[in-house]
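Predict the holo structure. Ligand: NAP.
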Amino acid sequence: MTRTVLITGATGTVSTALMGHLKGAGVRMRALVRDPAAAAAARAAGAEVVAGDLGRPATLGPAFAGVQDVWLLVPNGPRAPEHSMNALWAARGAGAERVVRLSAVGAAHDAPTRSGRLHALSDAETQASGLEWTLLRPMWFMDNLLNEAAEVREKGTLRLDMGQGRLGMVAADDVAACAAAVLAEAPGAHAGRTYTLTGPESLGLDQAAARMGAALGREVAYRPVSGEDKRAAMLAAGADEWTAEMVGEYSAAFAQGWGDFTTPDAEHLLGRAPQTVADFARAHARAFTG
Ligand SMILES: NC(=O)c1ccc[n+]([C@@H]2O[C@H](COP(=O)([O-])OP(=O)(O)OC[C@H]3O[C@@H](n4cnc5c(N)ncnc54)[C@H](OP(=O)(O)O)[C@@H]3O)[C@@H](O)[C@H]2O)c1
């Protein structure tokens, strides 16, 4: 039987890449979106598009009906556990068998970030749901560097607040490919497993900038800024206070060496080495060079 997988977060970074990786993998895809008019990428990947809002449980029935697998991605924010809970409840009600959940590195009740503590609540609920579960806990995405693309283009600088901390950043596309690898296999293969997904090397931002520069054929330099300056810049650019503080908590933790490690998990799932920051820069050269 061809399995149907419900893709949540279907207009976002990871889930859009996931649908690309699942195309041709022998599964039927259904995309849950709040606004079907914004689901062109899902349709292009061959997914059926169904409207629903994870913050409004009454809207979720049609999307979850008849699915065997759920890719559970909820956006960061104070309501993340509520959104995850609503999805799990709808999945149970619909008789789904398996949930593959995007969590975050170091998710734990004593994590140094509010995002990590909120993810821990949803991970615990997923583990107790009665559904077969697999958790993916990625490190900081290389894709966050795209937030600095204008600065890289115009000034050749990366202005971030991670001090001299090193971290094993990972490409969101590899996170998506890992999720696809799990979802394309029959249930059981990754049941009850938690994978911490990193890139192939742990780098300081000065090293990352140098590798980006070499890949792009131009100089890119890391200019460390204070957490307060970064927070002010994010608020000025339109970020909300919760997000600016959450991002700052990750930066502070990484500055302390909290993310200074890599794991073999991504390579194990991908069957190849995960992307380097140079690979990532080349793949997004247009954004970084204009
Ligand atoms: N960035 C990192 O470095 C990093 C590292 C580790 C883990 N993570 C985790 O990755 C996740 C974010 O993934 P991402 O970057 O792919 O997300 P994203 O690009 O921000 O996309 C978020 C998605 O969630 C959807 N959404 C928002 N509110 C919704 C609602 N009420 N009901 C249904 N859908 C809703 C959005 O749809 P609309 O189009 O309707 O807005 C969008 O498709 C978070 O859980 C985060 O903690 C991130």
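The first strand starts at residue 4 and ends at 7. The chain has two domains: 4-138+171-197, 146-152+156-166+200-260+271-289.
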